């Protein structure tokens, strides 16, 4: 049996990631200026996906109490497959974005921000379904004029660039929550 290979069409190159982030940030800023909320949420969700490599179901299930945004070691508790939990360390830029997003939730849209409340809520204040997050991502990719990717491409992109930066397969395994190192070796 042949091992699975991470094909180039399964992850975004760095220029595509930058283009998507720039597109989403511009859309969010335009919405903020017009008093709209949609793209502020989209930018936060997709930046989180790109900055953590979390699975779509893991993103949908993040609660505010799962965030530990201390300046020196910001991290998020991920509730993964099979009921397993792991901490994912995040960048300072994602930390800053999440702090701004939480402030926006509290002050601008009066969304609940207690420890048990979901980080990402739909415009109707309900928990996002995974399919809604997938659709959100597909719409954003199309709007940014990128090739067709699924939201799982954020996970593959994160794993690919983390490995390229660190050359530490165990770190990538731990961040992505892979039980078997063979799964991580595709990066």
Helix proportion of residues, in percent? 40-55%
Instruction: Count all strands and give the number.
Output: 3
Number of helices: 8
| Assembly type | single chain
Span from first to last CA?
Answer: 19 Å
How does this model look, in words?
By secondary structure, the protein is mostly helical. Helix content is 52%, strand content 6%. The chain is built from eight helices and three strands, in the order αααβββααααα. Strand 2 (75-79) and strand 3 (85-89) form a beta hairpin. The mean pLDDT is 89.
Entry summary:
The protein is mostly helical and 187 residues long. The chain has helices at 14-33, 38-52, 56-60, 92-107, 130-143, 152-166, 169-176, 181-184; strands at residues 67-68, 75-79, 85-89.
Keywords for this entry:
3-stranded antiparallel beta sheet, 52% helix, 6% strand, mainly alpha, single chain, 187 residues
Question: How are the SSEs placed, and which strands pair?
Answer:
Blueprint lengths: L13 H20 L4 H15 L3 H5 L6 E2 L6 E5 L5 E5 L2 H16 L22 H14 L8 H15 L2 H8 L4 H4 L3
Antiparallel strand pairs: 1-2, 2-3
Helix pairs in contact: 1-2, 2-4, 2-6, 6-7
């Amino acid at each position: 049996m042949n091992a699975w290979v991470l094909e180039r069409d399964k992850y975004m190159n760095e220029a595509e990631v930058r283009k998507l982030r720039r597109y989403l940030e511009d859309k969010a800023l335009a919405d903020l200026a017009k008093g709209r909320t949609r793209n502020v949420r989209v930018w936060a969700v997709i930046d989180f996906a790109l900055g953590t490599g979390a699975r779509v179901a893991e993103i949908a299930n993040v609660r505010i109490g799962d965030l530990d945004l201390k300046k020196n070691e910001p991290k998020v508790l991920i509730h993964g497959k099979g009921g397993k939990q792991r901490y994912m360390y995040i960048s300072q830029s994602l930390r800053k974005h999440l702090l701004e997003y939480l402030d926006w939730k509290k002050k601008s849209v009066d969304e609940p921000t207690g420890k048990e409340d979901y980080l990402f809520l739909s415009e109707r204040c309900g928990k996002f379904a995974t399919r809604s997050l997938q659709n959100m991502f597909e719409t954003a990719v199309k709007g940014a004029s990128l090739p067709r990717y699924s939201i799982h491409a954020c996970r593959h992109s994160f794993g690919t660039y983390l490995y390229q930066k660190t050359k530490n397969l165990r770190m990538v395994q731990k961040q992505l929550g892979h039980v078997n190192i063979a799964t991580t070796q595709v990066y």
